[in-house]
Structure formats: structure tokens, C-alpha cells
């Protein structure tokens, strides 16, 4: 009987699709399976119940081989786990995770500066850190900015124990590209001075940040955020055309912009249409915008995939008859609907252009005829004047 031995590369591809329980079984088959399955098993361990947290911590501390170096991501945000993740637990596992690059501590409110500050030292390879609803303070952010140079994604949603200068340590950070500050009441217009100095920032989420005004956006417009692609500003009626228009004009590479419940008008929509040719997502729910402005945006933004229109009274379903809606409110325009509107608008614009050209030709023809009539009339007058002069000369000779 011939035994077929699969190469480790092929085994790796197979094992990556197995659940954690099956991977654990594979480690007990033979040396090849053990060597191939173990790194995958430890790369991103899942925790099915609170007892698994204790087991994970114990395995890290008593294992003969440093299994912690295999761990790349940890998620503790599940509701039945986050109450068991505290400072003591994090202080126990952090020293064994030197290559950890993703850590989700969302809603782990028992994790404070006491463990987060050492975490920055023990896990310098961190790239993604989610601290939603965290009680952390400026001390933690200072350590993260200086000890984790590869940090790309920072989520501080609803983290309320921070001052308005909390982002100052990250100014000129080389890799920070995504920043989530939704529901942060500590934000102020002055915070823009720190955000505008994040040269690699690509995504900025500021939903329900009602402490910010147009002054904040105008300050961002003067920054060096050339890579900014996604901005979410929904839920702030203090933001108006006066702030959003210069912000849009300063960031022509935007792909997604959310302005739901902001105090904008068609002025902002026309600016978006003129300045954001690569736009893919536009959310203007509950804004005072019209269907005419939306149509202009659909035509001018060829990559547009979604437009949020919930609660827009002047952009109702009846204003888009080509979509075949009988009436009522229109919540979202999706890609196929946007394509239909664009086709109708392009045909209308083409007809108007042809009509304008035809009218111009007719006008030119009418002008030519009038010019010829004027020339004939002038020639007649000249002839009459010439004949009159000849008669006068003849009378003088007589």
C-alpha cells in the first residue's frame, strides 16, 4: 500500500479552512500535522466561553515552547467575554505576545491604563487596536504612539476619559491610517490641529461628534491629508455648507463621505459633484438636498455605487420616475438604480445639446439672411443716392 504524503504548503491551505476544534485534533496525528497545524491554531485563537480565557493564559505561561510568538490577533469583544478580560488577565498574557498585530478590547471596561501602558511595551508590532468604550487616558495613548510605530488602525469610539489634546502624541505618526472617534464628547475644534498632521490618514470617523463645528472642518482643509479617502461626519447638525465645501474642495481623492443629518444644501452636493470624481458612497440622509442636485452628482461621479437619501423630502421616489417606484420615500439608490438615472440624464443632456446646436444653426442662418437683406437695402440706398447725384449734376449743366 502506497502512502501519499502531502507537502506542508498544501496542508497549510487545507488547515486554514478548518475550525479550531479540528485543528486541535490535527496536531495529534503525527509530527508533520503537528508542525503544520500548530501555527494556524495559535494564529488567531477563538474563545467559546470564559473558561477558555484561563486555559489560554495558562498555556502561554507554562508551555515549554514559546507559543505566544505564533499569536497574531486576539478578539475579546464578545459580550460574554469582555467582563472577564481585566487588567490582571492582560498583564499575564501581554509579555508572551511580542508579535501580536491585532487586539480587540472593545467594551472591555475593566481594562485600564494599568495594563494598557505595559501592553504598548510588550507588543510593539501592534497594527490594529480597538479600544471602544475604553476607560483609558492620555497616558495610554502617549505610550502607544511611542512604543507601537506600526499602529495603523486606532478605534477610540465612546472612549470618554480623554482630553481634547489626546491625539497630540500621534502627530506625524508614520503609519496611522484609520481613526475612529465616533461618540467622543471630548473632541473640540482645536483637535483638528492634531488630526491634520497625520500624513497617512485614509479613514476618519466622526459620527455624532456634536462638539465639532465648521471651524474644525476648515482647519482640516488646510492640513496635509492627501491620502484621505473615507470621511464619516453624520449626526452633527452644526456642520454646514460653510465648513463642508472647503473640506471637500481640499480632498479630491475622497471615495466615501457620510453627511447624514448635517445642515447641508445643494451647494455641498454640487461641490461634491464637481470635486470628487472618484466618489463611491454618498450619504445625505435627512438633509435638505433636492433630486436635481442628486442627478447632477450621479452624472458627474461615474464610480458612484450608493447614495443614502432616507428622509430627504425634496428627493422622493416620485422625483426619479425612471426607477418605477409608485411613490413614498426613497431610502437608498443602489448601483443599478444609479446606472438607470445616469443613462436617462445623459440622454437628456445629449438632447439638450443637440437642440442648442440646432437653435444656434437656425440663429446663424437667420442672422445671415438678415445680413443679406441689410446689404441689399444698403445697396439700394447707395444706388438711389447715386442717381440723385447724377440728376443734380445734369440740372447744373443745363
Strand content: 5-15%
**Whole-number mean pLDDT:** 89
Class derived from helix and strand content: alpha/beta
Main beta sheet: strand number and arrangement?
11 strands, mixed
The overall strand count is 11
**Number of H/I helices:** 13
Domain F-box: 1-45
Organism: Jimgerdemannia flammicorona
Biased composition (Basic and acidic residues): 370-383
InterPro entries: F-box-like_dom_sf (IPR036047), F-box_dom (IPR001810), Leu-rich_rpt_Cys-con_subtyp (IPR006553), LRR_dom_sf (IPR032675)
Describe the structure.
- The protein is of the alpha/beta class and 398 residues long.
- The chain has a domain at 265-368.
- Helices cover 43% and strands 8% of the residues.
- The protein has 13 helices and 11 strands.
- It has an 11-stranded mixed beta sheet.
- Helix 5 runs parallel beside helix 6 (113-122).
- The protein is elongated.
- The mean pLDDT is 89.
- One of its GO terms (biological process) is SCF-dependent proteasomal ubiquitin-dependent protein catabolic process.
Lay out the secondary structure:
Elements: H1 8-15, H2 20-26, H3 31-43, H4 50-62, E1 73-75, H5 87-93, E2 102-104, H6 113-122, E3 128-130, H7 138-147, E4 153-155, E5 178-180, H8 192-195, E6 203-205, H9 214-221, E7 230-232, H10 241-250, E8 256-258, H11 266-275, E9 281-283, H12 291-300, E10 306-308, E11 332-333, H13 335-397
Helix pairs in contact: 1-3, 2-3, 5-6, 6-7, 9-10, 10-11, 11-12, 12-13
Amino acid at each position: 500500500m502506497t502512502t501519499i504524503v502531502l507537502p506542508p504548503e498544501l496542508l497549510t491551505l487545507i488547515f486554514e479552512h478548518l475550525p479550531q476544534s479540528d485543528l486541535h485534533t490535527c496536531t495529534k496525528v503525527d509530527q508533520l500535522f503537528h508542525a503544520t497545524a500548530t501555527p494556524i491554531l495559535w494564529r488567531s485563537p477563538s474563545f467559546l466561553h470564559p473558561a477558555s480565557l484561563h486555559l489560554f493564559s495558562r498555556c502561554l505561561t507554562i508551555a515549554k515552547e514559546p507559543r505566544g510568538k505564533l499569536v497574531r490577533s486576539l478578539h475579546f469583544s464578545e459580550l460574554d467575554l469582555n467582563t472577564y478580560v481585566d487588567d490582571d488577565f492582560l498583564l499575564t498574557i501581554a509579555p508572551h505576545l511580542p508579535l501580536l498585530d491585532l487586539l480587540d478590547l472593545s467594551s472591555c471596561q475593566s481594562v485600564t491604563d494599568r495594563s494598557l501602558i505595559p501592553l504598548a511595551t510588550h507588543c510593539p508590532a501592534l497594527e490594529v487596536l480597538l479600544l471602544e468604550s475604553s476607560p483609558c487616558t492620555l497616558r495610554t495613548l502617549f505610550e502607544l504612539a511611542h512604543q507601537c510605530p506600526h499602529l495603523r488602525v486606532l478605534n477610540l469610539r465612546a472612549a470618554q476619559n480623554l482630553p481634547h489634546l489626546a491625539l497630540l502624541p500621534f502627530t506625524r505618526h508614520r503609519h496611522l491610517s484609520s481613526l475612529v472617534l465616533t461618540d467622543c464628547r471630548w473632541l473640540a475644534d482645536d483637535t483638528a490641529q492634531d488630526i491634520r498632521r497625520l500624513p497617512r490618514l485614509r479613514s476618519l470617523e466622526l459620527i455624532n461628534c456634536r462638539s465639532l463645528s465648521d471651524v474644525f472642518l476648515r482647519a482640516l482643509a488646510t492640513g496635509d491629508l492627501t491620502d484621505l479617502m473615507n470621511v464619516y461626519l453624520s449626526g452633527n447638525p452644526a456642520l454646514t455648507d460653510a465648513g463642508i465645501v472647503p473640506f471637500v474642495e481640499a480632498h479630491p481623492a475622497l471615495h466615501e463621505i457620510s453627511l447624514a443629518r448635517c445642515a447641508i444644501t445643494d451647494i455641498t452636493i454640487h461641490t461634491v459633484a464637481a470635486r470628487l470624481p472618484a466618489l463611491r458612497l454618498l450619504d445625505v440622509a435627512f438633509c435638505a438636498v433636492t433630486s436635481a442636485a442628486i442627478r447632477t452628482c450621479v452624472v458627474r461621479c461615474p464610480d458612484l455605487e450608493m447614495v443614502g437619501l432616507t428622509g430627504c423630502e425634496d428627493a422622493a421616489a416620485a422625483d426619479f420616475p425612471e426607477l418605477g417606484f409608485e411613490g413614498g420615500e426613497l431610502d437608498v439608490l443602489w448601483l443599478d438604480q444609479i446606472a438607470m438615472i445616469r443613462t436617462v440624464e445623459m440622454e437628456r443632456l445629449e438632447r439638450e445639446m443637440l437642440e442648442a446646436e440646432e437653435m444656434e444653426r437656425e440663429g446663424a442662418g437667420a442672422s445671415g439672411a438678415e445680413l443679406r437683406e441689410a446689404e441689399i437695402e444698403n445697396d439700394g440706398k447707395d444706388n438711389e443716392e447715386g442717381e440723385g447725384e447724377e440728376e443734380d449734376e445734369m440740372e447744373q449743366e443745363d
